[in-house]
Amino acid sequence: MPPLSEFCNSRREWLIGVLTGLVRLESPTTDPAAVDRCGERLAEHLGEMGGAVERIPSSTSGAHLRATFGSASAARQVMLLGHFDTVWPVGQIERMPLRESDGRLYGPGVFDMKAGIVIGMLAVRALAAASRLDDLRVVMLWTADEERGSRSSRGLVEEEARGSSAVFVLEPALPGGAVKTGRKGCGEFELRVRGVPAHAGIDPTRGASAIDELAAQIRAIGALRDHGRGVTLNVGVIEGGDRPNVVAEHARAVIDARAATMEDAHRIEQSMQALRPVLERTSLEVGGGFSRPPFERTEEVARLYHVARSIAAGMGRDLGEGTTGGGSDGNFTGALGVPTLDGLGAVGDGAHALDEHVVTADLTWRAALLAELIARSGSGQELAP
Ligand SMILES: [Zn+2]
Asked: FRET label pair with 345: which of 196, 249, 276, 299, CA 20 to 30 Å apart?
């Protein structure tokens, strides 16, 4: 067995111990004190591993963490990316107790994505133990606001990615363990409609209904969909009007938009801004846009995937690939054109669901795979045909 695999397999208990410790420290994005309790524990582990750890305060959650390993003067940098905030409130662990059963470890945030963080940590420990960090710098960026749109971490993510030859995102794998070589871009729009109020019984023609206008706009928005090209628009929220006997003055809708390519994302933004009222005396106001650009499967992304696939094959594993409609911070690094591979984290199921879990038998080989991938990317070998 290659030494990286051997090392990772022999540290299974360490991995499970660190992981369960992090899951117990619940860390919802919206509770900065709780996020920081988890972040402090994580920072301790990273320090023990020999990392230079920085806490980077954020305006949207607890502090983000950046840890640097290997040689500060190395020509090449590889980035590991993920988040330690979760969607679950503090106390959720009472409803979703940490437990191991049938080879699965259950708990809030275990799959999305505390197990991914620990996989990344074990990979770097394996590289250090094999003295393979000497000409390489590995930067881990573990952010604290991903589940709320990464507003304060986006700049940091992009800054580190620009200096990296590859970015490995430790978000959960696709079902069965496949990695993600593309993600749709994600947008949110708000459409506000203004009409003219009037008494619905006495003087209806004096009014102009914002609700009628919104209904027409919902049809117009539906016409922008193109499922074949991966363009989706979902009018997920509508509201409007005050009383049944009043012609509605106000109505609004909130729309989720996804697109697989930058071109389609721009087209949707333009089309949304180009919406015009259908009914006389109503007006529209459109806000919002794409907050995560699409992460497209470029040639370099495909090449990185093929390297990962061949490393996995050498370990007797079949590593599949796929794309997803869900966003991650990998959207930012992929959109910058930095070779990115996402979904390298845990195998499991139930992200944001009550049965959230990881398959424990898959944790250590994913770490060994990542370790080899980091070493090759850091040496430039991934660029070889
Ligand atoms: Zn996640």
From this structure: 299
- What class has domain 3-183+294-383? alpha beta
User: Please, which residues have CB less than 5 A from ligand 1, an ion?
Assistant: 112-113, 171
Cα 52 to ligand 1 centre (Å):
24
Distance in angstroms (rounded) separating the CA atoms of residues 26 and 36: 10
Q: State the distance from the centre of ligand 1 to the C-alpha of 113, rounded, in angstroms.
A: 5
Question: Would you list the domain boundaries of the chain?
Answer: 3-183+294-383, 185-292
Distance 195 CA to ligand 1 centre (A): 41
Query: Does a cis peptide bond (omega within 30 degrees of 0) precede residue 140?
Result: no
Give whole-number Cα distances, 207 to 137, 218, 246, in Å.
66, 20, 9
What's the 114 CA to ligand 1 centre distance in angstroms? 9
Q: What averages of pLDDT result for each successive group of 10 residues across the chain (385 residues)?
A: 89 98 98 98 98 96 97 93 97 97 98 98 97 94 96 96 97 97 97 97 96 98 96 97 97 97 97 98 98 96 96 97 95 97 98 96 98 90 52
pLDDT, residue 72, reads 86
| Dihedral angle sign, alpha carbons of residues 361, 310, 125, 171 | negative
CA 147–ligand 1 middle distance (angstroms): 7
Q: What is the pLDDT of residue 382?
A: 55
In CATH, the number for domain 185-292 is 3.30.70.360
